[in-house]
Structures are given as C-alpha cells and as structure tokens.
Amino acid sequence: MKSFKLLLLAASMPFISNAQTPQQLVEWLPSTEGWKKSEKVESFNPETLYERINGAADAFLACKFQEMTTLDYINNSDEKLYINVSMYRHATPADAYCIYAGERSPDVEFLNIGGEGYLTGSSLHFTAGSLYVKIRTHSEDASVIDAMKSIATQLSQKIDPNPQLPKMIGCLPKEGMVKRSDLYIAENFMGHSFLHSAYQASYQAGEKDYTAFIIQTADKAEALQMLASYLKLAKNNKKPAEGKFTIKDPYNGEMVVKVTGSYIIGVTLESKPSINADNLIKQMESALEAIR
Amino acid sequence: MNISRRNFIRHSLMGGAGLAVPSVGFSSIQAQATKKMAVRSLGNTGIKLPILSLGALTATPNLVKAALRRGVVHIDTAHIYTEGRNEVMLGKVLKEFPRDAYVIATKIYTGNALFNEEFPQRFERQLKISLERLQLPYVDIIYLQDITTAAQVLHQPTQQMLERLRQQGMFKHVGVATHANEPEVIEAAVKSNFYEVILAAYNIRQQYAQRMSVAIQKAHDTGIGVIAMKVMAGGQNNAGAALKWVLQHKGITSALMGCSSYDQLETDLQSALKPKMNKAERQYVENIGNEENFYCQNCPGCSERCKMKLPINHLMRFYMYAFGYKDPGLSKEFIDRMQLPEDVCHCPTCAIECISGFDLKKRILMLDQLKKSPKEFVMFPKY
Q: How confident is the model at residue B325 (pLDDT cuts 50, 70, 90)?
C-alpha cells in the first residue's frame, strides 16, 4: 500500500471554500411556473468536460474551470420544449469572468443580471460569483425567453446577492475603449508564459488600435521579476526597476510598461496610434490607487 | 498495464519519422519555413501539410501569425469555439495572409443531431455563419464534429447534404472529427467511401492505441488523410516525446497542437523539426509502458457492475488527483463532496474487471484512507 505525505495546513494557506456543489446549485434553481426541473442532473469535471462540449472545453480549462452542472427545465404542456441550464464553476470570479468575456460579442442585448449578462437569440449568458451560466432553449417564443430571464435573475441572486465585475476592469481607461472589449486573460498573457494573467481592453484612436492592460502580481518582487523576463525577451539591457520602460516585444510589437508596486501597467503601440501613452498609464495608476 | 499494450509501445519505437520532401503549393512566406519541417500528403485531397498544425482555440492573434510565419500552415477552429469569437479572430488574422498561405479547417457540431430532420438546415446555416466570421468564401476542410458511431458516419442523408454544399463551393474537403470510439469511427469512414479526412484523438496514453494504429493505417492505405489531436494527453512531462511518438505513424499526416504561448510553439516546432526521438525520449516512452496508469477510460456500465454502486469513474479520477497529480488536497475536496458511505468498500473481491487493469479495490481503499484523514492534515492546492 502506498503512503502519501500528510502535511500540516498552514494558517495562511488558502483553501477551497464556498465552492458550490452540483446539489447546491440545483437547489438554488427556482421553481418556474409552467416548467418543471428534470430529474437528470449531469456534472462534468476538467477531465470530462470535453465529453459535453468537445474541443471547446480547452477555452474553459484555460480559465481554471472546475466543474459544470447541467439540467433541463421541461415545459409542462409540451415535453419536447426545454430550457437547459449549464452552470460552469471556475476557481475565482475573475476566472469565470475570463470565459464569460472571452465568449461575449459586443453586438448583443445586454441584461442587468449577475455581474453582467446578455441575450443572443435564444441563449442567455451571465456571470456571478465564480460561475458562468448559460441558459439555452430552441424556442424563440417570448414567454420562453421570459422564463429564461426569470431563472437567470433568481439564480444570480442566490449565487451572489451583490454581483459585480472584477474591480480591475474599472481601472482601465474609458475613453476610446472599444465597446465590451474588456477581458481577463487567465494565463499566458500576450502569449508569454512569464506574464501569467492580466486585465485588458482594446481601444481605437482614429484608424489605429491599441490595448491597455494591467497585470496584478503578488508583490513588487514578482512584478520586477516579470519585468526582468520581459526585458530579456526584448533584448533590453536596462535593469528592472519601478518606473516606465519601452519594450520592443518581438511578437507583439512596441509597448510602454510601468511597474508600480505589485502592478505592471501597459499600453501597446504596435500600430503607432496617436495617443499619449504616459497619460493613459497615469490614469490607470490613479484608478488602482483609488481601489487599494 | 496489460502486456500487449506494453509490447505495442516498445514495438512502436522501431518506427521512423516518415520524412518527405518539402512542400510545394504554399506561398513564399511559408516555403522558406517549411523547407526544414517534414511535409506529408493529406490522403487523396491533394493537400500536403507540415507535420505540425495549430489548434487555434487558445492562441492569441499574434501567436497565430507567428505560427503561420514559422511554417505551421494548417489552422483548426470550430463554429462553437468561444461562441464564435475564435472564428472572428481568425477572420481578422487570415486577411493579412495570401489565401494559399494556409489551410483552414472548421467544424460544425453534429453528434446524434444529424438524425434529426432539421439538421441539414441547421448545418448549412451555421456553416454560412462560420464563413462570414472567417471572412472567407470557403474553408479547405469542414468536419462533422463529435462523431462517435459508425451509424453517424454512414448516414446517407448527411453525406448527400454535404455533397450538395460542396457543389455550392462552401468547402473543398469533408471529414469527421472524433475523440471517442475512434477506431469504429475510422473504420466506418473507410467503409463510407465518402469522407476524405479524419481528425482523431491519438496519443501514447490511449489504452487502445494499438487498435488505433491499425485503423489509422487502414485509413491511410485507402487514401483518407488522418490528423491527430489530443496528442499530449498524459505527455506533459515530455511533450516532445509525446508528439514524436504520434508522428512516427506514417498514417498520420499532421499533429494538431493547441498552443497558447510562444514557448509552447517553439517547443512544438523544435520537436517537429527533429521528429526522430532522442535517447531520453525513447527512454521516456519505454517507461510509460511500465508506469502506473491513472487515466480511467470512463467505460459505460462500470459503476452499474459495482455491487455497492460506487461512482467508479469519479473515484478513479480522485485517485489520479491524489497519486498521479500528487495533489491529495484536491482529491479530498472532491471525495468529501461525494457523500460516500462510511467505509467505502465492503466487498471481499471486486465484481468489476477493469479493462485498464486497475486494482479498483486497492485504489478505493486508499481513497477511503484519504477520506478519513482530517482536512487540516492534507495539503490543499493554492489557486
């Protein structure tokens, strides 16, 4: 019989708590007039998610997917009419937002559900807490859509009575932002494994586009280490320190970055937009200061 | 680990890399890059592909461009990937390249839906949407996605629908994409005399890799191009060895790799540029034959055969977390939520003969020990 090491849990070690079980999520789903919840409830984990959503699973795994619980509401008058609710639980609210925003199109009807939600055709998506929820039907009947909205509203309140999007999104500059282009990238930001995660948004200045981003690290030491890796990649001999640097990323073009405390703030300049990058950096810095 | 699988892996090391001449037919951007990467014919399609292809789902736009410039000409996506945003992204990227610089494939989710009356209409509608997103009049390859049975492959009305859409110019070549029951699907595709490409999960960890090898060879011999996906499964400790093992099979035209970082792209390219295994890689592959196997095949009916009706596939996954991933905390989190009996297993002997050769009783008793351990004595993962 193998033995495994048992280690004392340090008081400071974070642990997984408040992680909703499939049973709890099903209990949170409201009763809805004219519909009954199916008895069949399925759950999928990181190893089996692909059985349900095929290769699309990789995008969820990249956003630290943990578990998906799914069941149907069946219409009392027509058993072939159903509403499917699929609840994807991720490691953190930011990770749930990661996949929600990654799948969101700017040209849809946005709803005040959860931190944010939208309706596209007969599919309703929202994010709340650490959950990304998709509610779908094959009917475009208004009463069915209303039922979906009702389910979504009540479920989101159970998940998080005070839902909000990640605060860091609000620290990105507003002017020039392409509508609903804000994203959280959970790993390999800009394709660089040493940059891990970041919040970003896309912008337009005339015909030119650019990106503003914020990387949150554990502390200044980690931020400087990250900067050191980036300078090395860019063959920039400057010593990493707090302050502003111009980096010529061989893959992503030129950008301005600034290390401030545990943050790395940046603006990409690949397209040579006519913008005041310093000003944008200052705006993000002030916004981060305000939420500290 | 059963003996025949161990022998199959050992014998597979005798294969070569199947090098071929550099390709013709790509734009000058790729011609230089593909000079060094081996190229193979995609069955009878007339397409020649470098042995490394890109699954674009988790790639940034600049990473896709970098891959194209480095000679990775085949790009794979799907209608459902990130609710269409992946195809939209590729549409913007591919505009910057000549049309002959890439071979683009997309997929439309199919499964058992193809037996429904409305499937042809839905398929055509979704394919048109995909083409709009990609900003292309046609794709090189269209796949039926999630094909898992011979009946799906051999469904005549679907083949007729596909032929009609091909005549309309929406795609050049048609294939099936499968990651379950793959040997049956491949054999049916051979029998169909219709499908030209197969995208199939193939990797060194598959319990039926030997059967897959035979099926792939059969497909190759009948002129069907086979592209391998899920190549890395279990090969994360030596990605190069995992990739090279797949490429040894001459019936595989190309290996489709998901890629989200430049480091990963570079690693994969280096393996593809030198596809012959080195000594350490050969050793790794040999050792896999002797390693404890943690990957449950999720066989249907397994839990039903358990006298205690335990969720066997879930328990094997928790065992993998504790002893494969070396993460007992993660395992315990899931075990605690499972509401298992006080003593998980009472049976003197196990009623299930596991095809993967797992000693189920032994593994479940070890999980029982973990279940009974106080939470504070088990390390939890940090996110």
A: confident
User: A58–B55: do the CB atoms touch at under 8 Å?
Assistant: yes
Hey, are the CB atoms on A251 and B58 less than 8 Å from each other?
A: no
Q: Which candidate from B78, B366, B377 shows the least CB-CB separation from A2? A: B366
Give burial (CB, 10 Å; 0-12/13-18/19+) of B311: middle
B86, pLDDT greater than 80: yes
Preferred mutation among A188, A192, A248, A271 to probe B, highest tally of B CBs within 10 A: A188
CA distance A157 to A167: 19
The neighbour count for residue B18, using CB atoms within 10 Å, is 16
DSSP B233: T
Per-residue pLDDT reduced to its tens digit, A91-129: 999 999 999 999 999 989 999 999 999 999 999 999 999
Closest residue, chain B, to A196 (C-alpha): B261
Average pLDDT over residues A283-291: 95
Nearest residue in chain A measured CA to CA from B88: A105
CA–CA distance from A144 to each of A26, A51, A153, A214 (Å)?
Answer: 20, 28, 14, 40
3-class DSSP assignment, residue A22: helix
> What residues contact residue B363 under an 8 Å CB cut-off, 6+ apart?
B315, B316, B319
Residue reference for tokens 């090098």: B19
